[in-house]
Write a structure and sequence with these properties.
About 85% of the residues lie in helices and about 0% in strands. The protein is mainly alpha-helical and about 80 residues long. It has one domain. The chain is elongated, with a radius of gyration of 15 Å. The N and C termini lie far apart (about 35 Å).
């Protein structure tokens, strides 16, 4: 439901912070990272579910991944300034 809007915002922000003459290379790297994140998220949730034996605890890793991403985003934006 929200993925399209979030992806559009992330691509828009990304386009603002990268050099225009190298946008193809940077967007290629972003695409690879998106694929890796989709794989990593599924793997982390599955592994946590298998290790704990509880789907609820496995799904709890999702907010942890979001908070980690938010912290990294805030840290990178502070480095930019």
């Amino acid at each position: 439901m929200f993925q399209g809007g979030i992806q559009a915002l992330s691509r828009s922000y990304f386009a603002k912070i990268i050099p225009a003459e190298q946008s193809g290379e940077y967007f290629g790297l972003m695409d690879i990272c998106e694929k890796g994140a989709a794989f990593m998220g599924t793997t982390v949730v599955g592994a946590a579910t298998q290790l704990t034996g509880s789907m609820n605890k496995g799904v709890t890793t999702i907010p942890i991944l979001f908070v980690t991403g938010m912290v990294l985003f805030v840290m990178s934006s502070k480095l930019e300034k």
